[in-house]
Amino acid sequence: MALDYFDNDTGHHICVHIRREDFMLYGVYEYSTENFTRASVLYLRAKLHESGKNTTVAILGDDRLWAQALFANDTWIRVPTIPARPTTDYAFFARHCHTILLTASASTFGFWSAYISSAEIVYYNVEYAMDKDFQGNFVPADIFPPTWIPLQLNSSNNVITEVAR
To answer: Which domain holds residue 139?
Structure first.
């Protein structure tokens, strides 16, 4: 499976978990948005390239057609064509990811994929819920391991920043 995603690429693998379909339907949790997903992937690639790492990105999760369209012109992106299955994603994250990005931080599938992985570092979207009152009651330290790094999108200029915990 990894060879299909990375075409025998032995570089640094960034794995991105997206969650959209049910999160968009119910409107409670923040779903993977075009702006955050694209800006954060570009941010991580640039950061890793500065440290001399050649990167390839695999996008897994529930809306792969959306991801293919979002990154249609990027040759360094791999979006699997097999149907999305959480168990397959778990196994892939566990074995092949050096860096993980959770674009919909409330996703339990994304969380556990990252948690059981052997990734060197995990990044997550600081925006957890669409309801800002609910977001205000959310304490990231109660959920995310202290080594995981929150990212925030400045929506006025699409710039990603790492948030202090």
So the answer is: 2-162
The pLDDT tens digits of the residues spanning 58-88 come to: 999 999 999 999 999 999 999 887 766 778 8
* Rounded-to-10 torsion of CA 53, 42, 67, 120: 40
pTM for the model: 0.93
**What CA–CA distances, in Å, run from 160 to 33, 65, 72, 114?**
13, 24, 21, 20
DSSP bridge partners of 102: 17, 124
For residue 148, the tally of other CB atoms under 10 A from its CB is 20
The total number of structural domains that make up the chain: 1
Output the domain CATH number for residue 147.
3.40.50
Sequence-distant (6+) residues with CB within 8 A of 5 are 58, 78, 80, 92, 96
Quote the pLDDT of residue 87: 83
- Burial (Cβ within 10 Å: 0-12, 13-18, ≥19) of residue 91: middle
